[in-house]
Automatic annotation (TrEMBL):
Residues 21-34 have a biased composition (Basic and acidic residues). It comes from Gigaspora margarita. Residues 21-52 are annotated as: Disordered. This is Uncharacterized protein. InterPro entries: HMG_box_dom_sf (IPR036910).
Length: 96
């Protein structure tokens, strides 16, 4: 019976050791995931620091024309008028 007990104890130790090894692996992966989270945050910060895109010629044209026409036209009509002016504008690359 003592042989059985010692073999059972040995099996229990092996199982306990396996649990500890898997727990250590999980703990290691947790620290790796923390590192990856930090890397993701650094990447997000870098993306935020990017300079804004340059405005297109059309966007610049709208910025110039909108304040001039704001008092005369409603919101829907103002963009129709700006669009018509853009079609005939020398700033429009299609008119070159």
């Amino acid at each position: 019976m003592s042989k059985n007990l010692s073999s059972i104890e040995r099996v229990a130790e092996l199982i306990y050791d396996k649990k500890n090894v898997s727990k250590q692996k999980r703990d290691g992966s947790v620290s790796e995931s923390k590192e990856s989270d930090e890397e993701e945050q650094n990447v997000k910060k870098q993306k935020k620091k990017k300079l804004p895109k340059k405005l297109t010629k059309y966007q610049k044209f709208v910025q110039e024309e909108h304040p001039k026409l704001k008092d005369e036209y409603g919101n829907e009509d103002i963009f129709k008028v700006i669009g018509n002016r853009w079609r005939n504008s020398p700033d429009n690359p299609k008119n070159i």
